[in-house]
Structures are given as structure tokens and as C-alpha cells.
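Page 42, continued from yesterday. The earlier attempt failed because a stray header line got pasted into the input along with the sequence. Redoing it now with the clean sequence only.
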Amino acid sequence: MTSTIERISSPKRLTSKLSKLLREKIRSGEMKPGDKLPTEQELLESAGVSRTVVREAIAALKAERLVISRQGVGVFVAKHLPEQPFLIDTQNLDSLDEVVRILELRLGVEIEAAGLAAERRTGEDLERIQAALALYDQDVDAGGIAAEPDIQFHQAIAAATANAHFVNLIDYFGRILFVPGRRILFHYQSLIRGVEKKDTDSYLVRIREEHDAVFSAIKAQRAGNARHAMRAHLERARNEYHAISQELRAKGVDTEHFVSRNRLSPI
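This time it went through. C-alpha cells are written below.
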């Protein structure tokens, strides 16, 4: 059976839109286990997207084990579909309120991760965390916003829990939406508040100090202190973005599409 794929009209996040469309057809049963997906050429013509978008969308479905490839034959719906995976629709990150919700989710996960890391960390774990802190400093010194080293810092803490579920979930945050809104924050401060670069630099220094507090507690194997330091770190971020959302609303700005309207990256 070959399913009809609707044309995708919006140019934004095409890969996400196409993979979501195909995923829904599979989950709803419109595309049944064993059915062959439209060919690459059929998908790019019917959906109106590029070959790269089609390939990336199919790769995403393969990673979720929803489809399988047969060499020289095509791509098919898997005969045994996995349970519905945990997914966060990155399109929703156009909304500042959604950024706040993601930070609340991170609070629930990463506070406990910090505590477990303090109890279980090894010497190698401490070295990985310290390496991430050093990369953070290098990025800031080079004029960057230190998003990637920040990701690595939290991933190193997850690894120190010795629990693969924390590792996988925090890695998912990292690849999809970690450090949500840092560019939103800096753009907003510049655009709305007229904040200068020195103020954004001081913000990055504050994050580094918060990271230091988390690391010191983990190194000293003080689980309670590690949880407290991680809570303070993430709650401060959540409160900052919530304040931005409230301030924009008071000015009559559409917070639901602040990211796309200002051509910002959601991470």
C-alpha cells in the first residue's frame, strides 16, 4: 500500500514536519506494518520538500524503529512497532512558555541526577565534568555563548549517575532542545531592553559560577548540596525566561512565535 503524503506548505522545520506526518500515519494505522513507504522521489514531489529533508525525515523514523530499509527494495513500516516513544515537538519551542515548561521538566530530572552523581561519581567522571567547564571558559573567552560546553557539562553529570536512563534522557535534551532559549534571552535583552554585551557576558559568568557550585558538591560527594545547587541553577533560568514572557505580554508581543518571528535558534 502506498499512502498519499500531503504537501508541506511551511518552509520552517521541514524535516520535523515530514517525519511527524509520516509518524502519525504509521501510528494511526493508515500505514500498516509491512507497508512500503512512498519512494524518495514520490515524497519529495508530493510533500514539496528537498531530497535532504526526505532523507533526514526517514533517518529519524529509522532511529525510532518505526521503519526499516531493504537494500534495493525500499523503506517499509516495521512489522513490530515499538511502544510510543517520548518525544518533544521542537516546533513548540517557538513559544517562550514552552521553553519554561521544558526547564521545569529539566528540574525534575536533573536535580536528582546531580544527587546521584555526587553519590556515585568516579575520578574519571570528575575529569569529564572539569573538561566541560574548561571548554565553557574557552568558548566564552572566544566570544561565544558557550551552549555546547554547557550541554557537555550536564551530560557529564548524567554519566556520573551510572544510570543509562539519565544519560539517554539528558542526551535527548542535548540533541533536541538543551539550554533552551539562550539566544532568545540574548536577542531579547538586546532588542527589548537595550542590554549591552557586557551584561550578557556577566550572565555567562553567573552560569559558570552556578556550574562551579554543582561541581564542588559532586566532587565532595555531598548529594544534598548537589541537588540544592542544581535546583538553584535551573530555577534561576526558569524564572528568567518566565519574566521575559510576562514582560513581552505586557508589551503586547506575541510570545507564541517570538522565536520564528525574530529568526532565532531555539537553543
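Notes: The radius of gyration is 21 Å.
Reminder to self: strip header lines before submitting.
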